Every structure is written in C-alpha cells, then in structure tokens.
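Deliverable D5.2: sample structural annotation.
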Amino acid sequence: MKRTFEHFRYCPRCGRCVEPTLGGPLRCEVCGFVYFFNPAAAVGAFTLGPDGRLLMLRRAKDPGKGKLGLPGGFIDIDETAEAALEREIGEEVGARIASWEYLCSEPNQYDYAGVRYPVLDLFYKVRLEEGELRADREEVAGWTWIAPAKLRPADLAFVSVRRAFAACRSRLLD
C-alpha cells in the first residue's frame, strides 16, 4: 500500500518531475514550490441510546467491510465538523442529532484504491432525536445497539475508533 505522497511525481506549479520525501513536504527544486501533505479530516459519532447502549454500524464496504464502525465520515471542503456529523448521521442512518459533545481526536489511516490516506478523526458523543433509523444500504450493512462494556475492540474496523473508545470510555458511560 502506497502512502498518499508517494503518488505525487510532478510539481503542481511547473510540472517538473519531483522526488517525494518520506513524510515531508513535496519540494520542487526548479520553481521552489512547496506542498505540505496534511491529513484529511473525518468525524465519528459514539451514538448513545436512551438506555446507554452504543449504536454500531456494520460496514458494507472496505476498508473494514463486515466490521463495526461508527456513524461518520469525511468532512467536505467548506464544511464544519459539526455539519459533517449531522450530514453523515442523516445519510447513514436517517436520523437527526439532538445533542453532541466533542470527545477527542485520533490519527488514522484509510486504505482506498491502493492508496493509504492519513486522516485525523474527530470523535463526538451524540444523542439522536427520537425516530426510526433507516440504514443507507450502500454504506451500512446493518446496525446493532451494544452496551459499552460488551464492545470488543477487535470487532471495530479502525484503530482510531479503538483508541478513542479506550480514551473516552468513562465519558461515554456518564
């Protein structure tokens, strides 16, 4: 799996061939252009039901197909993290947010189409407005409500979700 920066071979300003450096910015020796590689931003919702159980989605696609994930996804350009959270929950489970609380952030890697993208995941504790959930079958194979004490980290699709759950577990039980 190649990292995102390994796919950049040409300067976006002058078109000259450049050699990417591991983890550093892309520097063009001809025109002096410097491009910094930053992570994409994404949101994830630890969604609590009235009984304290967590809403966990079964992923319909890779990466992590068949594993458990959170409602959430990538933040679009010119979109706030909170707007992305609202949009993603609406798209994935057809619900609206009643309340949210920021929990933490964790770095992640998202492997897609042979490229490894660096991501910074922003996690929230969320409660939904009352109503029936409906899954977007393109992204969500199904869902389940799980007591936080019964959630097994090995069942989670992403390392960042495992780390965030471990770091914020006590705040999720409040």
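Annotation notes: The chain has a mean pLDDT of 91. The longest strand covers residues 97-112.
The annotation will be released with the project's public dataset once the embargo ends.
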